Amino acid sequence: MAVRVKICGITRSLDAHLAVRAGAHSLGFVFYEPSPRYVEPAVAAEIISGLSPFITSTALFVDADPDVVRDIILLTKVDLLQFHGNESPEYCEQFGRPYIKALRMKPDMDLIQQVGCYSSARGILLDAYKPGVPGGTGESFEWSRIPVSMRSSIVLAGGLSAENVAQAIEQVAPYAVDVSGGVEASAGLKDANKIKCFFEEVARANNN
């Protein structure tokens, strides 16, 4: 099955259209204010309203106040929630919306146990661990740490770019890959050529 692609950190309509034209299945919008990829909810709502019907919009939060999450859901009409902090399963479930739980690959983490805690999640995203940084580190992790039985169902993130995404797909064969910094000109602003090259490498890996 072909690996799907999510482009995260969308902050402007131009980048959304570039990603969709290149073949993105999902676009991610960061609602975590300390992030350089933070987007104002009203701006995200306008971008999302112009998306094609089969493009999934994903809202990324980090330990957000539940009322903030509810307000953004109402304003943006986003399809999917993504929680990138220390949110409990009960926290994630309270919104009655499909969600993805991001897990940062800490050295001592029991991945199977952690994934089991979030059995209600639509999917699990695995990202690199860097102390104090909830995501978007631009770093990768040892993909061999992912149990083989789990690989086909996870979303793989962390330091992906045109230089390594084909290798990641060939080694892990994940359900999807998630990229942000690897296709940027600068934080929050995408680069058309990097997006093009990224999708070319995904296609090459999918066709192998």
Quick structural summary:
With 208 residues, this protein is of the alpha/beta class.
Overview of this protein structure:
The structure is a single chain. The protein is α/β, with parallel strands linked by helices and 208 residues long. It has one domain (4-207): Aldolase class I (TIM Barrel), CATH 3.20.20.70. 34% of the residues lie in helices and 20% in strands. An 8-stranded parallel β-barrel has the order 1-2-3-4-5-6-7-8, surrounded by 4 helices. It has a two-stranded antiparallel ribbon with strand order 9-10. α5 links the parallel β5 and β6 (123-127). The longest helix has 16 residues, at 192-207. The radius of gyration is 16 Å and the shape is globular. It starts with a strand and ends with a helix. The model has no long low-confidence stretch (mean pLDDT 94). GO terms for molecular function: phosphoribosylanthranilate isomerase activity. Pathway: Amino-acid biosynthesis; L-tryptophan biosynthesis; L-tryptophan from chorismate: step 3/5. Residues 5-200 form the N-(5'phosphoribosyl) anthranilate isomerase (PRAI) domain.
List keywords for this structure.
about 210 residues; alpha/beta; TIM Barrel; 10 strands; about 20% strand; phosphoribosylanthranilate isomerase activity; aromatic amino acid biosynthesis
